[in-house]
Amino acid sequence: MKLIIDDANIEKVKKVWELYPCDGVTTNPSILAKSGRNPYEVLSELREIVGKDGELHVQVVSKDAEGMIEEAKVIREKLGENTFVKVPTTPQGLKAMKALAAEGVNITATAIYTPMQAFLAAKAGAKYTAPYINRIDNFGYNGVQVAMDIQDIFENNNLPCEVLAASFKNSQQVLELTKYGIGASTVATDVIEGLIKNAAIDAAIDAFNKDFESITGEGKTMANC
Ligand SMILES: O=C[C@H](O)COP(=O)(O)O
After folding, report:
1. Does the domain at residues 2-194 carry the CATH identifier 3.90.1150.10?
2. First CA to last CA across the chain, in angstroms?
3. How far is the CA of 212 from the centre of ligand 1 (A)?
4. What are the boundaries of each domain within the chain?
5. Is 132 a pocket residue for ligand 1 (Cβ < 6 Å)?
6. Ligand 1 in reach of 135 Cβ (< 6 A)
7. Per-block average pLDDT, block size 10, for the chain (225 residues)?
8. Is ipTM over 0.95?
């Protein structure tokens, strides 16, 4: 499973990118709006953080296919041709996906709430489809199960598309999809940090270090004892 950062706060993304084994960054208009800055200013900084080969996902806002295609062109000009263009999975979005896929554009189909939406996006040429786990849970459905069903649909229909599960609110949702071997998950920085936040880990390390200090004295390590 690829692990992608769902955030555009430069300081937070920098920190998580440096510490954790992540594969890229996803954004959406709401995430970019939190910065209060010009979207391309923020996105250029994110591109610098992930490097030219890291995954960067950027969403279009036009409602019609022609507008989406035009936005995709500018996104790729400004941020690199390998940038994933996030296209909402609407009828107009599917039209745009077909045209963009024919030109070799990397497409992430987004705003996915149902398996059939993902099926259509994959057939239209998307490389990723992004079901919104927590938002689906909030409707009283099972977001994790929807993501698993989508992955099964791709396998059973030989569709070369991966699930990029999005909208996580807790570690359990991420764990379930990691166990299933979902293609990718995009997770907010605080939820990524929560994956490894555990007082028992700190307590174990403190006890080891105290024992070590009892034989070497303060401030020593395996490099200088
Ligand atoms: O791009 C989609 C987001 O991952 C949705 O996440 P959210 O439900 O936390 O806003």
Report:
1. no
2. 40
3. 45
4. 2-194, 196-225
5. yes
6. yes
7. 98 98 98 97 98 96 98 98 97 98 98 98 98 97 98 98 97 98 98 96 97 96 97
8. yes
